[in-house]
Design a protein that fits this description.
The complex is a heterodimer of chains A (139) and B (405). Chain A is α+β, with helices and mostly antiparallel strands. Chain A has a single domain, classed as Sufe protein. Chain: A. Helix content of chain A is 49%, strand content 14%. Chain A is built from six helices and four strands, in the order H-H-E-E-E-H-E-H-H-H. By secondary structure, chain B is an alpha/beta fold. Chain B has two domains: 135 residues, Aspartate Aminotransferase, domain 1; 253 residues, Aspartate Aminotransferase, domain 2. Chain B is built from 14 helices and 17 strands. In chain B, the strands form five sheets. Chain B has a seven-stranded mixed β-sheet, sandwiched between helices. In chain B, strands 13-14-17-16 form a four-stranded antiparallel β-sheet, with helices on one face. In chain B, strands 1-2 form a two-stranded antiparallel sheet. In chain B, helix 2 packs antiparallel against helix 10, helix 11 runs parallel beside helix 14 and helix 12 crosses helix 14. The termini of chain B are far apart. The relative contact order of chain B is 0.17. Classes of the chains: A alpha+beta (139), B alpha/beta (405).
Chain lengths: 139, 405
């Protein structure tokens, strides 16, 4: 199953008007993320300082950056799926150009990006942006 | 005087808040308690009418501020049944109180001496002693708990010996709610000549504390867990020990006389209170303790027991829920895990329904490792919670479970 695009997600979420449906949808998106093998749950891939554990693995396919992410919490996995829709399988230049704050604002989920949430989302976004900027700078 | 939970709730303005349209169900009382109107008023009144610095002013406001501030010390001394008001030292909270004692003892410990704590410590009552031992070459011993989260008293006693210089214990575990048999443990520790500190952070809001009856040497607590302001706390210690305890911070207030090259320390309680204190906070804490002391203590205990008992019954009947911490003697805390869903999921989805709990390791990471859990979801109750709120927690948990399935 191809990953949902940011447009798909924005469109789907606009359709729901109660929080339960919204979060059920987000949880389901998380369940649909490609599985990360337990073998990849290593300290280098772990994002520190989160209540739940969050891992990220980075790969390349020519110009495209591929990310594999995982979390032991359902909501966080769902939020990671939203981030993956924006970032995974994109070029470094596309990642750098993408306005993630605006995307989360449109999703009405910007409070999850707050550094005080401690859910690892902010840290994952920062890590992906750092990687993409380094790739752009090296090109 | 009877215990009327609705009358108590009326005094807490925050309890009428709504979260995303749902009434707030505040079950994070082990983290901090809410404040009654009289405490809020005491702080507003202080800043509105007599804000000034204490002890050294030559004017009316300074006199009034000092009177209120020192009156709060008398209130706390009475509340704890301290032998003297000089035994009540203001701190910023439990953590600072423990640091004052751990820092002092570190200067007196020798290589090979031992300090004893338990497996259920909050980080504040663990890292402090761990570091004091590192600095001094002393050995930190850890008294074990059983799988229910109860201290194994025989093992605790076996770890006491002539080398044990210091014992630090929680009155109540913050993560599990276990009530320790502190009097019995203090007697054993005193029998080998150790000094004993009781971490009262979680014990203080659940009934009267009599430090002389306890028999410990130090007792510490935070004002904010006793319906008082954040940034306030009390270190109670025996006057004979505190009188020459190594000073903690140095500066103004804690000195008698100063030359460019030397200084003479002030007398108790001021020698351990450097700098301008949190005057408004202390005045608020005095109001909180007066308020708390005015409640029907037996009714309060009965109510708290009923809350925990209902929560435990509903938890046991809830399919897929595991209670973490099953001590026979417990207060105010239901720590748990759901089969489906991480504690972070549970906390988030409860919050969306207006139910505030805490999730994570509860500043007790080694305890979570010992129990083999990644952390827990923790509902903690206070005197203003109702049985209906306990039931709302479980109604909300049913929805959480359905959403995560």
């Amino acid at each position: 199953m191809p990953l949902a695009t940011t447009e798909d997600i924005l469109e789907d979420l606009a359709f729901f008007d109660d929080w339960e449906e919204r979060y059920k949808y987000i949880i389901d998106l998380g369940k649909g993320l490609p599985a990360m093998s337990e073998r990849l749950h290593t300290p280098e891939r772990l994002v520190k300082g989160c209540q739940s554990s969050v891992w990220i693995d980075v790969g390349r396919d020519d110009d495209l950056l591929l990310f594999l992410v995982d979390s032991d919490a359902f909501i966080v996995r769902g939020l990671l799926a939203l981030v993956m829709a924006a970032y995974s399988g994109k070029t470094a230049a596309e990642i750098v150009a993408f306005d993630i704050s605006s995307y989360f604002q449109q999703l009405d989920l910007e409070r999850h990006l707050s550094p005080t949430r401690g859910n690892g989302l902010k840290a994952i976004v920062a890590r992906i942006q750092t990687i993409a900027k380094a790739v752009v700078a090296a090109a | 005087m009877t215990f009327d939970v609705e009358a108590i709730r009326q005094q807490f303005p925050i309890l009428s808040r709504k979260i995303d349209g749902a009434p707030l169900v505040y079950l994070d009382n082990a983290a901090t308690t809410q404040k009654p109107q009289c405490v809020i008023d005491a702080i507003v009144d202080y800043y509105s009418h007599c804000n000034s610095n204490v002890h050294r002013g030559a004017h009316r406001l300074a006199d009034e501020a000092t009177t209120k501030f020192e009156n709060a010390r008398d209130i706390i001394a009475g509340f704890l049944n301290a032998a003297s008001r000089n035994e009540v030292i203001w701190t910023s909270g439990t953590t600072e109180g423990i640091n004052i004692i751990a820092n002092g003892i570190a200067q007196r410990l020798q290589v090979g001496d031992e300090v004893l704590v338990t497996e259920m410590e909050h980080h504040a009552n663990l890292v402090t002693w761990q570091q004091a031992c590192k600095r001094s070459g002393a050995i930190l011993r850890i008294a074990p708990i059983n799988d229910d989260g109860e201290l194994i008293v025989s093992a605790f006693n076996d770890l006491l010996c002539a080398k044990t210089q210091f014992v630090a214990l929680p009155q109540v575990s913050n993560a599990l709610g276990t009530i320790n048999p502190v009097i019995e443990l203090i007697v054993s520790a005193k029998a080998v000549g150790a000094l004993v500190l009781i971490d009262g952070a979680q014990g203080i809001a659940h009934g009267a504390v009599d430090v002389q009856a306890l028999g410990c040497d130090f007792y510490v607590f935070s004002g904010h867990k006793l319906f008082g302001p954040t940034g306030t706390g009390v270190l109670w210690g025996r006057e004979s020990l505190l009188a020459d305890w190594p000073v903690w911070q140095v500066g103004g207030e804690m000195i008698l006389s100063v030359s460019y090259q030397s200084a003479e320390w002030n007398l108790l309680p001021y020698r351990l209170e450097a700098g301008t204190p949190n005057i408004a906070g202390i005045v608020g804490l005095g109001a909180a303790v007066e308020w708390f002391s005015s409640l029907d203590t037996i009714g309060l205990k009965t109510h708290e027991t009923a809350l925990l008992s209902r929560a435990t019954d509903l938890a046991e009947a809830f399919d897929g829920l595991t209670i973490v911490g099953r001590a026979k003697n417990k207060t105010g805390v239901l720590s748990f895990l759901l089969d489906e869903g991480h504690p972070a999921d549970v906390g988030f989805l409860l919050d969306r329904q207006g139910v505030a709990i805490r999730t994570g390791n509860h500043c007790a990471e080694p305890l979570m490792k010992r129990l083999g859990v990644p952390g827990t979801a923790r509902a903690s109750f206070s005197i203003y919670n109702t049985l209906a709120e306990v039931e709302q927690l479980f109604t909300a948990l049913n929805k959480v479970k359905a959403m995560l399935a």
